[in-house]
Amino acid sequence: MEFKDSKGIFQQIADSICDKIVSGEYPVGSKIPSVREHAAAVGVNQNTIMRTYMELQRENIISNQRGIGFFVTESAPQQIINLRKEEFFQVHLPEFIRQVKLLNLSREELKPLFDQLNEKP
Amino acid sequence: MEFKDSKGIFQQIADSICDKIVSGEYPVGSKIPSVREHAAAVGVNQNTIMRTYMELQRENIISNQRGIGFFVTESAPQQIINLRKEEFFQVHLPEFIRQVKLLNLSREELKPLFDQLNEKP
Amino acid sequence: MEFKDSKGIFQQIADSICDKIVSGEYPVGSKIPSVREHAAAVGVNQNTIMRTYMELQRENIISNQRGIGFFVTESAPQQIINLRKEEFFQVHLPEFIRQVKLLNLSREELKPLFDQLNEKP
Amino acid sequence: MEFKDSKGIFQQIADSICDKIVSGEYPVGSKIPSVREHAAAVGVNQNTIMRTYMELQRENIISNQRGIGFFVTESAPQQIINLRKEEFFQVHLPEFIRQVKLLNLSREELKPLFDQLNEKP
DNA sequence: GTGGTCTAGACCACA
DNA sequence: GTGGTCTAGACCACG
Predict the structure, then answer these.
(1) Which of B82, C18, C56, D34 is least surrounded, with the fewest CB atoms within 10 Å of its CB?
(2) Which residues of A6-16 are buried (b: 16+ CB within 10 A; e: fewer)?
(3) Does residue A58 lie within 7 Å of nucleic acid chain F, judged by its CB?
(4) Which tens digits make up the pLDDT trace of C19-47?
(5) Which of A81, A99, A104 shows the shortest C-beta gap to B92?
(6) Nucleotides of E under 7 A from a protein CB
(7) Tens digit of pLDDT for each residue in D26-82?
(8) So where are chain A's domains?
C-alpha cells in the first residue's frame, strides 16, 4: 500500500477501512483483520494499525471483543456516511464554491462536474 | 486570525495574501504590510511571516526592495491564477466529483453550489 | 452478560460467583454450574471459565471432585467476606473518602448512600 | 514518579495533571511543560506523554498552539470536575453502596466515613 | 525550540 | 492467538 504525504498514514488506513465497510467488503458484524495481520498486509508498524483501530473505535465504527478482535459495528456504515457528509458540507463544499468564485470559472470548464451530476437524474 | 490544523500556518497566511492579490485588495505594484505589521495583525511570530514572504518571493508573487518592503509583482495575479487553476483541475475538481459520487448527493443538497454557479451567466 | 473493560473478564465472573455464594444463591456444599454450562450461559470461552474456577480453587472458595464438578467449600463465605473486607477497608473506603473530599460533595448528593445505610438500624 | 500497575501510566499522568489544574498549580491559560520536559521529569518515554496530552486535548482540558506548546483551557477545571463527578456517581458510588450492603457493614465500621462527612456541616 | 508521526521491538494480560 | 502499553530512537514540519 502506498501513502500520500499530506495525510497521516494511520488516517489513510482508516479511510481505506471505512471504504471497505461502506462497499460491503467488511460487512456489519464481521471481524476485521487483526492488528498484526493488517500491519503485515500494508507494510506498516503494528503501532500504526493500533492507532488506526483506536480512532475508529472512538468513532463507533468498530468495537473490540477482548482477546478476539475488532468487529464492524452495527451503526458503522451510517456513522461513516454521517462523518463524511459533515466534512463535505462544512469543509469541502464551501472551499469548492470559494475556489470557483475566485477563479471565475466558466461553465465550460466545469463541464466534467455537470456531466457527473446529470448521470443520475 | 484563526488557523486550521490541517495546513501550516505560513501556508494559510500565504493563501490569504494571494486571495487579496487576486481580489485586487493588494494591487499590482503595491506594497504589502511589513513583516512586523503583518505579524502583529494576525497574532503570529515574525519568523512565520518572514517565511511566508520568502515563499511568495520564490514563486515571483512578491519582490523585495531592501529596506523598503515587499511589493506585488507585475505577474503576480496571473501567476497565482495559473497555480490555482492547475491545482483545481488536477486535485480539487476530481476529488470533489469523487465525493459527490461517493456520497450520492442529491441536487437539493448541492443547491448552494448551483446558486453560486448561476450568479454569473 | 456484559463486561467492563477495566477488569479482566475472568475476574468479573469470579466476582459474580462470589456474590452468589455470599448471598446464598450458591449454598455451602452445593455444586456450581459446569464449565461448559457456565460458558454458554455468559457467552464466553470455556477456557475463560476454567481459569476463573482455577483461581477460585486456589483461594479455597470452590473445590473440585474429578468427573463430578466444582463445589462451594465450607469456608467459602467467610473466606470471601474476609478478603473483601480487607480490600474494602484498605482500598475502597480510603479512596471513597478521598473522592468525597476532593469533589466537595454535599449531603444532598450523597443521599442515596445515607438511605442505604439507614435501612438496617 | 512511581506508578501503579492497575492503571496505564499515561492515565496516571493525566490524572496528576488534572490534579494540578484543579489545585491551581497549572492555572487556566498557562502553558504546561513541553512533551520532552515532562517526559524527562517523570522518567517516561516522550510517546507516553504525547498520548497523555492527546487524550487531555480530546477532553478539552488542554489545547495546542502549534510550535509553542500545550495550554490549560478556560473550561478545564469545570470539565475535570464534571468528568470526575460523572465517574463517581455512575461507578464509584453504586459500587460502594453495593459493597456496604453485601458486607453488611455496621455503622461503627464506617465511622471514618461519617467523620469525614461531618467535618463540613 | 515545539508538536507529530512512524518504526522496531519488547512485554503483558487475556481468550 | 488477541489487544494493549511502553520504550528507544529517529525524522519531519513548523515557530
Answers:
(1) B82
(2) eeebbebbbee
(3) no
(4) 899 888 999 999 999 998 899 888 888 88
(5) A99
(6) 1-10, 13-15
(7) 999 999 999 999 999 999 999 999 999 999 999 999 999 988 999 999 999 999 999
(8) 9-75, 77-118
Right CATH for D9-75 from 2.60.40.10, 3.30.1490.190, 3.40.50.150, 1.10.10.10: 1.10.10.10
Q: Which residue is nearest to nucleotide E12 (CA to C1')?
A: D5
Give whole-number Cα distances, B81 to B18, B19, C7, C17, D61, in Å: 9, 10, 60, 73, 42
Q: Which residues of B26-61 are buried (b: 16+ CB within 10 A; e: fewer)?
A: beeeeebbebeebbeebebeeebbebbbeebeeeeb
Looking at the predicted structure, is the pLDDT value of residue A24 above 70? yes
Show the 3-state SS of chain D: CCCCCCCCHHHHHHHHHHHHHHHCCCCCCCECCCHHHHHHHHCCCHHHHHHHHHHHHHCCCEEEECCCEEEECCCHHHHHHHHHHHHHHHHHHHHHHHHHHHHCCCCHHHHHHHHHHHCCC
**Which residue, among A77, A70, A82, has the nearest Cα to A27 in the 3D structure?**
A77
| Interface A:C, Cβ pairs < 8 A | 3
Please name the residue whose C-alpha is nearest to the C1' of nucleotide E14. A67
Per-residue pLDDT reduced to its tens digit, C56-85:
998 889 999 888 999 999 999 998 888 888
Q: Which residues contact C27 (CB under 8 A, 6 or more apart)?
A: C72
D45 touches strand F (CB under 7 A): yes
Closest-CA distance of chain B to residue A34, Å: 27
pTM of the model: 0.85
The grid coordinates of residue A106 equal 466558466
Q: Which residue reads 485586487 in cell numbers?
A: B24
Query: Residue C64: which region, alpha, beta or left (left: phi > 0; alpha: psi -120 to 50)?
Result: beta
- C5 and chain A: CB distance < 8 Å anywhere? yes
Cα nearest neighbour of D64 on chain B: B5
Q: CA of C69 and C1' of E11: distance in angstroms?
A: 36
| Residue with grid cell 480510603, as numbered in its chain | C94
Interface contact A113-B97, CB threshold 8 A: yes
Reported residue count of chain D is 121
Give yes or no for A120 touching C (CB within 8 A): no
Which residue of B105, B114, B115 to mutate against A (max A Cβ within 10 Å)? B105
B86 touching A, CB under 8 A?
A: no
The cell for C12 is: 468479573
Residue A4, CB, strand F, below 7 Å: no
